[in-house]
Amino acid sequence: MIKKMLKKTAKFSEKKPYLTVLIIIVLTIFAGISATNVKSQTAFDKMLPQDDPVIISFNEVKDEFGGGNVVIVAIKLKDSDNSNKVDDIRDPRVFELVKYLKDTFEDSDYITRVSTPTDTIVNENNGIIPNDIETVKEIYKNLPDDKKRGMYNNDFSMITINLDSDSGDSKAIMKEVYDRLEGAPVPEGVEIIPTGSPAMGDLMGKLMGISQAYTTGLGLIGVLIVLFLYFKKPLSATMPLIPILISVVWTGGAMGLFGIPLDMATAGMGSLLLGMGIDYGIHLMHRYNEERKYGKNIGDALEIAVVSTGSAVFATTATTIAGFTALTFAPLPMMANLGKVCGLGIFFCMVAVMTLLPALIVIEEKYILPAIRKMASTEN
């Protein structure tokens, strides 16, 4: 049954290569559109089993009492050559900055509560920001120890503002925070650095995107070099790679369709598929070239290559998918996601190689190479 299906595929690709390519392109466009729906998963609680009592209780507490995400806005001293710089975080200009930030963040829909350490000193000064640093120092000195605790660090170089949020979208929270920080009256010698779980989640999301692009690009270059060294022809070296790149797009589309997020495990999907899937194309191209050397015409050589190689590739794909399927039963969601993505990806690699690569071979042999030879003979 498999051999009959592969034989029909080979014949269809030979007779209608352009139609085959067109169908693949249309499918890839739809997959690319679907891939735009893939969401980054950076929330640490979402990376743990959602039926675990700890996570269930965490979600209940968050639903009943709010919170769950705290952005810590660190206001720190920094080096500056300006003679008017702030050299002690107790400077009244920092109080003005903190008041501005508090008023700004309290107006945000993403922030449920703003906690500022300077409120205690302002309240002790009849609700007015002190005019000079000496007044601040005196008020601070007379505060009881329990009120001093956590207000400043030991060398008075940093204070923090805590922003509580009940949103689980780290990216949206941090966009709101950065937008609100723009235009803040930051005095010389002071810098503002947001941190906390949402900030780290947002950073993780950015790094996952960068890592995915970097590893896929690096893998692509490495595979191209190996293919060129093996086939010694630019066109032949590129063709086995095209179906694998197509399968990467299809896998992204499947992730968007089935709601599989981009997390720390699935971020390396592109380079994994390049490394695992390229074997299929190399085997098919090698067998086809062998049959052509034996004197077979394009159709016969393609049919033999697809049927013989395809049977082995089908078995290899089935065993690989079986191995990745085991990951889907892992208790960690991101490990299960990796199993789903790799299983789907390796299946798409097989389908793309067995359908698209034969069509590309026919187009090269019947149309591109004759056109190149004709151009060369015309020039001579």
TrEMBL record:
Domain (SSD) ranges: 241-363
A GO cellular-component term linked to this record: plasma membrane
Location in the cell: Cell membrane
Pfam families (UniProt xref): MMPL
Keyword terms, alphabetized: Cell membrane, Membrane, Transmembrane, Transmembrane helix
Residues spanning the membrane: 213-231, 238-258, 264-282, 302-324, 344-363
Domain of life per record: Archaea
Matching Gene3D superfamilies: Multidrug efflux transporter AcrB transmembrane domain
Name under which the protein is recorded: SSD domain-containing protein
UniProt source species: Methanococcus aeolicus (strain ATCC BAA-1280 / DSM 17508 / OCM 812 / Nankai-3)
